[in-house]
Fold this protein.
Amino acid sequence: LLARLPPSKGRAVAWGVLVVQGLAAWYFISQYAYLGYPAKIGIIHRLGQVTGRLAPNLVFFWPHPNAMATFSEGGVPLAVALALSSRRPLERVGAVLVGASLGYALLLTASRGAWVALVVTAFLAAALWARRRLPARVGLPLALAVLGLALAGLVVLFLLGPDRVPGLRSVLARAASRFTLYANSLHLLRDYPLTGIGLGETFPLVYSYDVLLLQVPFLNYAHNLFLAVWLNHGLLGLLGLLWLLVAFLSLLGRGIREGASPIFWGASLGVVVLLLHGLTDAPQYVDGGWVMPPLYALLGLAVAAGPRRPTTAKAGRRRLQMVLPGVLVLLLVILTWPFLRATYELNRGAVQEIRADLAPDLTEDEREGLRAAAADHYQAALGAWPEQTMAHRRLGLLALEAGEFEAAVVHLERAWRGDPTHPANRKGLGYAYLWAGRLDEAEPLLRTVPQVRQELETWAWWRAKQGQPRLADYARQMADRLR
């Protein structure tokens, strides 16, 4: 709807977006002292406590700081654009106040991903300004100098190391944990590539069950916008997001070539901030659904305020543009049919199995029926593609749960050989060896699993309680080996 508005309405819509973001920022700032956030960065937390005490306690909503950062950050470039382009002093002052409020709220969130996204976007905006305003003989050396300084700064940080740079160790540790999370999220998506795992706060339990082989939730979300959309909406959702991204980049390219209004640049740079931050954090699906609208609002505003798309393409060319993608997709389907059929069967089975594990109000017979149907789909997937490691892993884990340990070993060994990086392949095969009494083979696999000793001690207690003394003894022996 926003994209269909005439350009003359762009400023009013921009103010509507900023008013909503500004009100949210003021609530966050004024209630910060009462919301009970932990201190991520001490001095910033103390500052928020001081300014938050200036207002009474009116808390009715508890936004996560990362969600507030994502909701607010896109408005900063828009507020700057309004302040710089306005000819009315009152409007300019209002834009400055809203922009300052958004900036201070972002400071209080202590979201380093949002800060980095804003800084990178500011450099991109400066580069675009220099490209239009400075001659090439000045702009190119200036850009190279800035790039050289940035690279030199990275080299200096690397040479100094985390011991001599405050905060660098925690940043590197956070980056390593995020890359592990992204890799594991991709492992999860290999089981649900077509449908995803569903909307809402489904990620914590599904991630724990299918990737970590834990029975308790571990992480709340995937911390990446593209992974989050794929996990929540499936393949069609991811393709839709990528299509939006391509269309936005095309629009941005026309704006660079032809010139555009300040509102267009403010909205477009706001989208860039959101997309850059989305590479490292994406709370859009875990805090009640209120975090996503700014991205769509800014995209629509950029289209409404941007240069119009030319409509002079010939009819034959338009028909070719419509038919050619369909022909290419059909050809791709024909060439990869066994792989696609195996993927479809795997996805169907995974959905039925996770329903059996997590759906409420099912009888035990219904759960067993779903697991049996899932196993049939996994067998069909292997019939289409015998080396599909995901189906082997899931059949192996079903056999492990049923106490068929040698059958579990057969499937999980094939899964492990096909993908030794998957945590569930490593851990599942380790437990299959353990319950089969092959402790020497289980030990090197289980030794790499975090906090597995506590799990083994729990297993020893549980197996003993179930009247399985031999399996309980295996678990105790392995726990002793891993001390």
Summary: The domain at 334-481 is CATH 1.25.40.10 (Serine Threonine Protein Phosphatase 5, Tetratricopeptide repeat). The CA atoms of residues 317 and 323 lie 10 Å apart.
